[in-house]
Amino acid sequence: MQIQADASKCQGYGNCVDLDPDHFDLDDDGLVVVLKSAVAPSEQETAGAAVRSCPVAAVWLVDHEA
Ligand code: SF4
After folding, report:
1. 2 within 8 A of 29, measured Cβ to Cβ
2. Which of 36, 39, 50, 66 has a CB 3.0–4.6 Å from the CB of 19, allowing a cystine?
3. What is the CATH number of the domain that holds 44?
């Protein structure tokens, strides 16, 4: 799985960062930054919870492209 983000939708709530700081951070403007887009199988639960926590759906998971 991979994380994708649309920082233009981000409202800077920080839920994703709180739940999965290995993958998400906020930049100086308080908008989401994906630190690492690749999600290992062992990380899927945490990354999924972070994605679901976003109230504006600014981050989401996609399957790896072949
Ligand atoms: S949870 Fe959503 S709105 Fe909040 S910082 Fe993360 S991407 Fe932005």
Report:
1. no
2. 50
3. 3.30.70.20
